[in-house]
Write a sequence for this structure.
């Protein structure tokens, strides 16, 4: 497994659309995009006011750059047309992922609940 920084820049003026798909986005993160990646941490990117969203980022654990990219492209934000650009950057092999409490949780195969 490798670690990746995912940076998604959003199109301006899309706050209403972002709010509409936020719950689906959070479910995507919690499931790791159906197993494409594990999201270690992430959040919104904002303007200097700390409130106006301009994108989102995530630290991902994924088998390959292609799987990290597929995770980003499958995000409901991207599918809804909110995302303008996606950048996937490799993190150092010595990245200390064990210091992070992951956002993606293992799912119970019987119930589907994380």
């Amino acid at each position: 497994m490798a670690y990746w920084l995912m940076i998604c820049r959003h199109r301006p003026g899309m706050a209403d659309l972002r709010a509409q798909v936020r719950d689906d986005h959070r479910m995507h993160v919690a499931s790791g995009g159906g197993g494409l990646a594990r999201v270690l941490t992430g959040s919104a990117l904002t303007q200097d006011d700390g409130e106006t969203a301009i994108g989102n980022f995530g630290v991902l654990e994924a088998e390959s750059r292609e799987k990290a990219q597929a995770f980003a492209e499958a995000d409901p934000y991207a599918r809804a047309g909110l995302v303008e650009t996606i950048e996937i950057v490799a993190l150092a092999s010595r990245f200390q992922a064990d210091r992070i409490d992951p956002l993606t949780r293992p799912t119970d195969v019987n119930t589907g609940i994380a």
Remarks:
- The CA atoms of residues 56 and 83 lie 9 Å apart.
- The mean pLDDT is 90.
